[in-house]
Write a structure and sequence with these properties.
mainly beta; 5-stranded antiparallel β-sheet; 54 strands; about 0% helix; globular
């Protein structure tokens, strides 16, 4: 509460993440003329970065400081942003900032963030740029769940707070009668923002708990010991982990003595990592509940099964991350097991793809930018040269000419202007000449989040492509001489701006729930068909890697494989029939069809019962994961869609 009359010119000392340890100032008899404070810094558990401000130099400076959370934003605007105010949450409760700016603006926009699950990750906008006077024209805020805005007119010079894999914890800037500039305090990525996901425990409650921790960089070796009996079970398991400093650490043996059959799994490829585990649990009244069998899935292969695949099936959902630790329970045998997952996109923020083409010419590398604004291509049957205009923090940066800046009368000049920043490149494909030397790029096609550009050149030779993997292209590199010899791209993951849409599950309530998680695409589906759909197993793409998920359902029937010619062929939808009456179980998936961009696969199973299609309209979004229920059959199926922008 204020002490005194709140009139005159406002002042404040921002909250700095420190504590006040003393005051100083001036006084004249009974009046306090001025006051200041001594602050002692409190060590931050997580680093704070200051970004901005963006805008003009007019107005008075303000700084709200740093808090735990931002709960509400209120904006008044007309032709420009007139004012902005924030509600923060501190360790001691709610804190409301003053209004930064004037009273004008015929429109008001307010947003309330869902605390503590939703937080602001970045913001962008436009500046009404003038040599003498610059103001904020519009603002757009992005949270980890949605986009709020744009608020105001998207005119003038664009600016954007780069995504720092962090959380905004305070704002600062300059304001007078309007909002002149704005910047942010951002709490950089930490376990607090991206927690390790714990999956499990799967198994029994016998034995003693063990935990290898979640601080490792990767799993490099697994040593499994089987008990030598007619019904083999997992006697013990040992893991070798790679640490951040590349040293290797061997865990204790979790389980009994190493006197059974030993199987050693080596993950020697530096690019390979575990993505999920599955198996079977022995469960009976007269014997302890222990792990019967284990299967490991990496981003490159299926490893196992090890043990006896009988009992109760379990599976960890594929989370789009990698396993970096295990925990569980053990005594004479392995009683239970669980895993720690870490998100992949935050570990490898920038991916290099390619180059595609030959080894002629000289190497070139444009580097990494905020995005691509424009492409200029000179082509006839081949690509003679290519030229890029990038965006670097709101400013255009042009590359050199990649190839010879000469052309014959047949050559055509094509310019592709992207609606940046709303539009960005997501993938490239093309053809390279291989029938005689030198090997060069024959054709190129560019894909954005809004459409396709090309092909440029003649589509003959050997196809190459970098699929859309939930990332945006931020730079190119390659080789060139008289023509474009090769091309590669730098891409960074895009935080999903829109929540995943779930459709279903459709079918019955029998069996146990399963969930494959979310990925970037679908590469293929394996279907086992008997009198009904016995099981389904899906191969996904995740950022260019194959992910084989667990089988959902039983084994008794004919196996059918649908392998899409990925990335040239994509899944559009699935359809089928549900058996609702008669039989046992009464409500299961009777048949399935797989709809791709090329054709329809199936039907698999008898087309009887109630028809369904997921999604009903293929323009809604693309399927990036399946979930449902299964036991000895496929009881139900649903899909997660990423809405098209």
């Amino acid at each position: 509460m204020p002490f005194g009359t709140a009139e005159g010119r406002y002042f404040s000392f921002p909250y700095t993440g420190g504590k006040i340890i003393g005051f100083h100032g001036r006084c004249d008899g009974p009046r306090l003329e001025s006051i200041g404070a001594y602050y002692e810094p409190i060590p931050h558990t997580y680093p704070i970065k200051v970004l901005g401000p963006f805008g003009g130099v007019g107005g008075d400076s303000w700084d709200d400081g740093q808090y735990v959370h931002i709960s509400k934003i209120a904006i008044q605007y007309g032709s420009v942003i007139n004012s902005i105010a924030f509600d923060y949450i501190d360790t001691n409760g709610s804190v409301q900032s003053i209004r930064h700016g004037g009273n004008g603006g015929e429109n008001t926009s307010k947003v309330k963030l869902v605390y503590p699950d939703e937080y602001i990750t970045s913001f962008s906008g436009y500046i009404n740029s003038n040599d003498n006077f610059s103001l904020i024209n519009s603002l757009t805020f992005q949270t980890n769940k949605r986009i709020w805005g744009p608020i105001g007119k998207e005119e003038g010079k664009y600016f954007s707070l780069p995504s720092e894999a962090g959380k905004l914890v305070g704002f600062f800037g300059k304001s007078g009668a309007q909002l002149d500039s704005i910047g942010a305090h951002i709490e950089l990525s930490s376990n607090k923002l991206y927690p390790f996901k714990s999956v499990g425990l799967f198994g029994g409650s016998g034995g003693s708990p063990w935990d290898d921790g979640n601080h490792h960089a990767n799993v490099r070796k697994i040593i499994i010991v089987f008990e030598p009996s007619r019904e083999p079970i997992i006697e013990s398991i040992t893991f070798q982990y790679e640490e951040e400093d590349k040293d290797l650490w061997l865990s204790k043996r979790h389980g009994g003595t190493a006197q059974g059959k030993i199987h050693v799994i080596d993950l020697c490829d530096l690019d390979e990592y575990l993505t999920s585990i599955s198996g079977y649990i022995r469960s009976c009244i007269s014997c302890p509940t222990v792990i019967h069998s284990l299967t490991f899935q990496s981003n490159k292969r299926t490893i196992g099964p090890f043990g006896n695949e009988k009992g109760v099936y379990f599976s960890s959902p594929t989370t789009g991350g990698k396993i970096i630790g295990f925990y569980g329970r053990s005594g004479d045998h392995l009683d239970a097991i669980g895993a720690y997952f870490e998100p992949i996109s935050h570990l490898y923020p920038i991916k290099s793809i390619g180059p595609f083409g030959g080894l002629g010419g000289s190497a070139w590398d444009d580097g990494k930018f905020s995005g691509v604004r424009e492409i200029e291509i000179v082509h006839d049957d081949i690509i003679h040269y290519i030229f890029f205009c990038y965006d670097k923090n709101g400013e255009p940066v042009c590359s050199g000419t990649r190839g010879a800046n000469t052309r014959n009368g047949k050559a055509k000049v094509t310019k592709v202007r992207l609606d940046y920043p709303r539009e960005y490149l997501t993938s490239i494909s093309g053809y390279k000449r291989e029938n005689y030397k030198p090997i060069i790029v024959h054709s190129l096609t560019f894909y954005s989040n809004k459409g396709r550009y090309g092909p440029f050149g003649k589509e003959i030779g050997r196809y190459f492509g970098y699929p859309s993997t939930g990332s945006k292209i931020i730079g190119f590199y390659g080789r060139s001489g008289l023509d474009l010899d090769s091309i590669g791209a730098y891409a960074e993951p895009i935080s999903h701006m829109y929540p995943f849409k779930s459709l279903g599950p459709i079918g019955g309530q029998g069996g146990d729930p399963w969930d494959d998680g979310v990925h970037t695409d679908v590469r293929g589906i394996e279907i086992v068909v008997g009198s009904v759909i016995e099981s389904i197993k899906v191969e996904y793409d995740y950022n260019g890697s194959s992910v084989q998920c667990s089988k959902h359902g039983g084994d008794h029937g004919d196996k059918h494989e649908v392998k899409l010619d990925y990335p040239k062929e994509r899944l559009i939808s699935i359809s089928g029939y549900i058996r609702e009456t008669g039989g046992s179980p009464p409500t299961v998936i009777q048949s399935l069809k797989i709809h791709s961009t090329r054709c329809i696969y199936g039907p698999f199973g008898k087309e009887k019962g109630k028809k369904f299609c997921i999604p009903l309209n293929s323009t809604i979004g693309r399927i990036i994961g399946f979930y449902g229920r299964s036991g000895s059959h496929l009881d139900s199926i649903g899909a997660r869609l990423e809405p098209y922008n």
